[in-house]
Amino acid sequence: MSIRWNNNPNPRPVFSGQWIRFVKEKGLRAGDRIVFSRRQTEGDGVRYRIRAERKNIELLDPFHVEKKKRNSARELREKEEK
């Protein structure tokens, strides 16, 4: 990922890069969050941080856990059949 500055009168950083890859590597799904933060460092330096936060669906949705168990059982049967 990279950061560049736009050319507006009030320049802001523009984050660009391989977002699909980032999402896949972090295992993100709908409802998860990506948090951007900025920290001033010594001198004129600025550090940006990108953090992924997963929403824990399984704790909030007991049906999701049951569905996951059923899917796992089906996957095992399919593997045994091969």
UniProtKB/TrEMBL annotation:
Q: Name one GO molecular function term.
A: DNA binding
**Residues in domain TF-B3?**
1-54
InterPro entries given in the database record: B3_DNA-bd (IPR003340), DNA-bd_pseudobarrel_sf (IPR015300)
The principal location of this protein is: nucleus
Q: Which UniProt keywords apply?
A: DNA-binding, Nucleus, Transcription, Transcription regulation
Cellular component aspect of the GO annotation? nucleus
Q: Does the keyword Transcription apply?
A: yes
Instruction: Report the locations given in the UniProt record.
Output: Nucleus
Q: Which SUPFAM superfamilies match?
A: DNA-binding pseudobarrel domain
- Can you name this protein? TF-B3 domain-containing protein
> Which organism was this protein described from?
Salix dunnii
